[in-house]
């Protein structure tokens, strides 16, 4: 393989519910909610039918602060990814800041800045190699000696990103459009004494939130991601129902998205469902391969489970002041 290939690429962290893991999408997304704080937790298992599936964990917390009378939205998100069995774990910690500006009564712009710390490690201690095959038991045995000895190798670096988001409010509709650039400083990763400069990651995303027929809403969205020579798209929509007079259940929704199909061949189809209960939103999705490559389960098949908690806004938006007539 190495004789005929000049480069070998692995996948980056990616999610089916990409608008839920909004801080991996754009730092300008911080504070784009109605409340005092928001917390998100998500778990993804990809290639679930193999012994060591790709596993990704994501969590984020965001809250607005008001220094010197100005609102600054602050977000912190952490991701753990294991994309090669148990041999290549990665830790990603990001701090993001965003500032909103009212252009008009219905148009807002938000600019975001992101600073991250990325730590990746290669560790083959839990793996077995061809010369560890034990014929007496008919299986590989990690206790046997091996000539394929790999030292542990770790790479740590800082990364930066920027983003901008435009929000346009209209009757029964909110439009959002954003652009972000991640790995802006192009950090260098080092494994086994070899350096690799990480490509910048460019993201464009569009979404519409439209309410109709009093209780129904639709959320079409599209995301385009480019990094180096790799392009990826995610396009689809969610359809939901709001329970206006129900104090327990707030909403139900479901959706369908297609990964790729615009700039390259279709990879997978994503089905998602969600339910809003009080201050919580629970969601789940299933992504499966429709590319025709039936052996590519490790690439395109996965489950995601997660929840969102939003603390309601304590700020008084409107004040009714009674007056006397004279």
From TrEMBL:
InterPro entries: PorP/SprF_Bacteroidetes (IPR019861). It comes from the Bacteria. Pfam families: PorP_SprF. This is PorP/SprF family type IX secretion system membrane protein. It comes from Carboxylicivirga linearis.
